[in-house]
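In this section we walk through a basic example: taking a raw amino acid sequence and producing a predicted 3D structure, encoded as discrete structure tokens. The instruction is simple. Fold the sequence below.
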Amino acid sequence: MNIVFKKHTDPLVYRTGFHVLTYAEVGFAPLDIYARNFALSRHALVDFVEAVNGSGEVGTLYPAAPISAVPQACIRDTAEPGALEGYISEFVRGNARHIHASYLLFDFSTPRLPRHAEEALACILKSPLDYEISEITIIKN
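The resulting token sequence is shown next.
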């Protein structure tokens, strides 16, 4: 598995088997950036964000768009990596069972990658993954 670190200004390749995991927030947030590439309506995006944040669970726009999100609170309202680590693990398991993306992009930037998000990602990358993933890209501004 290849691990790549990029910035928002670096070009991204949207290819078959690509899937984004970010956090559920509209406005000046990564979710909006990725959603623009898939012609999602503002209404659909707001509904998605409200559903994810309201349920407190990982949500996905797949198959309409290769984008999933964790609740905003685990990025904005805490500095503890545990909750985010659990959500990322849940996403990776869901990817293995349903989505089958082999290129994952994790973007939890606010605009920089918060320390607790970096710690959660480090823990996930140390553990064996349930599914063959060719590449993980981490946005680290």
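Looking at the output, two observations stand out. The chain has a mean pLDDT of 93. The chain has five helices and six strands. In the next section we compare this with other chains.
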